[in-house]
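Example: Glycosyltransferase (Complex carbohydrate synthase).
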Amino acid sequence: MKASVIIPAYNSKERLYNSLLTLNEQECEEEFEVIVADNGSEDGTLSMLESFKAEFPLIFVRIEQNRGIAYGRNQAVRNARGEILIFHDSDMLAEKHLVAKHIKAHENEDSLVVCGMFWKRIYSFYYDRFEKEHKERLAKIYEDMPAKNKQALLTEKEVKDGSFQKKSFDLDTDFIDALKSILDEYGDDLAGYHLPWRFFITNNSSVKRRHVADIGLFDEGIVRYGFEDYDLGIRLHQAGLSFKLRRDIMSVHQEHPSNCASVDDIRTNIAYMCDKYNNIHSLGVHLAFNGPFNASLTNGIMEDIAKLLEYEKFEELLNLFLELLHVVKDRNLDPDWRQKSPRVTAKSFDLQHIKKLLVKAEKKLGVHDFANALYALIADLLYVDLR
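Written out as structure tokens, the predicted fold is:
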């Protein structure tokens, strides 16, 4: 078995059906299987899977209670036989060469993570629970606004023949704009970019199964919505794998009401990630989620951090940087952070010693981006100007 397509599903029967239809239409000479982890669905997903006429080996794992998407994905991975894992969510529509292109990308690349295009969106169904922005966009598309819950907005023919792509559009958010600007600067090979795991979105990505097994699968401690893919991507990156974006590997997300229960989900997961990667070798995690610097400067800081890590005498600088990024996290996530005991103060470190050490590091290693960032954080958070 060459590849296993991993799909977690939760109450997405109609979108999953469409997704499986597009996988039925794959033009791929290699054998592949599809494994669906039904994560406690209550909408008839299981009966749909039992009756679906698949053109590939279809395996489904029923999980009686939803224990989070990481747990669901792991149950699917544990049942996988493929050399390559292709992550593809239940609400994704695959263009007809998606599986073949993912497989081909790994032919001569043993330690590669392939990130397909993930920012295309489409309306395949109307939902009463759509958020305001979705209803406003739909009103611009349709003269007669859809009114029936789960009313189909695509025909089965459009799904099967691939013409659904003509109705797709780019997701327009600050998050996507930021990632596109990184691609503009560093290219789709992400050469010289030190946080490539930011492109590891598990609705359209692939990696060899043994690499995922080697690092321990998805972290099942991440139960709330999101970030389990980033966590796996971080560990794959730290294990030495390279990342590449492939715009030609196309998958389109079927829009639906958000699975994110509240902004508290995001806050909880960011705090979890910062606690998990609470060391100077994982400063990129803190910079990505909390850093107040633009993408280009952040990348320059990461280059400087790599230089500093080679010298034990500069670890004091890196530890202070880590502590200050924790303070930024607290400020970003906790509205009452000022009323609580401060994590660090100007007395927590010998700042004059820090200044001398930083001057030495700049002269010896040329770590100007890191130095400017540390000076700025000290001034902003500790109210001390060391320049």
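The mean pLDDT is 95.
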